Amino acid sequence: MKIILIGEFLKSRLELSYKASFESLGCRVFSFHTGIIPYIFKPLWQYTISRKLLRNLNLIKPDLVMVMKGYFLSAQTIIKIKKLTNALIFCFNSDDPFNISHIGSSNKDIIECIPYYDCYFTFSNILVEKIKAKGAKRVEYLPFGFDHHLHFPVKVSLKEKKIYGNDVVFVGNWSEEREDYLKELLEFDLGIWGENYWKKFCKNKELKKKWRKKAAYGIEQAKILNSSKISLNILRAQNKGSHNMRTFELPACGAFVISERSPEIEEFFKEDKELVLFSSSEELKEKIRYYLKNEEKRNEIAYNGFRRCIESEYTYQARAKRILEVFDCLKDIKLL
Q: Which residues span the domain enclosing 219?
């Protein structure tokens, strides 16, 4: 089976994890990198991308066109793909497609393309009905997961613990809701790892001092998590009530996790047995104080969370397998 995977093949992006996962399942995967450019150049870049993509499709003749978000694709391009190939066209959107106010998360083209995909995969159960209402032919809930090549427990030396370790650590980019929670934690030994958004947007000067001046991915992220006592997961606005990538990545690395509470996270992990949840700043501070004093309990919960990730197959390989199951189902219907 031949798949062309369309997206941004940058460090830490899901495209890389899905490419490896599809290949592990026996698929031949061709990468089509759309690149990243300033939004003002989008129309010209969209035209360039469309021409290049159609040439590639004509050569590859894939069975499945797998679009990751589709930031630079137009409805006209999707229609041309359908005319040019006999392939099914799927989309997985790791963001809320209706969040057009946030540049980088979505745009009008992403919304307009929804009815043209054969199946639209979304990370959030909350979004399923909204996407259907926009004319989607089929919508599938596909949670995030973890990449076992990137997210796993690592041994750290005493030297590495001094470099990477904090009592409480947050690995992720800035957002207003994250700053609101973290600025309440200045009494603790707190470390923040993330992109320069923390430097550019963080309003609290004392909190900004907690930023370690870089982002962390892969093995370095695992070292940070395994050097620190408590790892926090704070949801962005679009993930409220749902979950995010850190939901699985943190416990898969063997970290003890205190996460913002949401119905979906409660479905994936048992509260106070596989991770700890909070709904307010006061509850978060109370639980940090408690678990900093209870190392044995932290270790037990961290181990149980790790086991849940493995035993429940929260891997991207399992997610890719689900995409292929939907492909087989729709392919059979198409042949009738």
A: 158-311
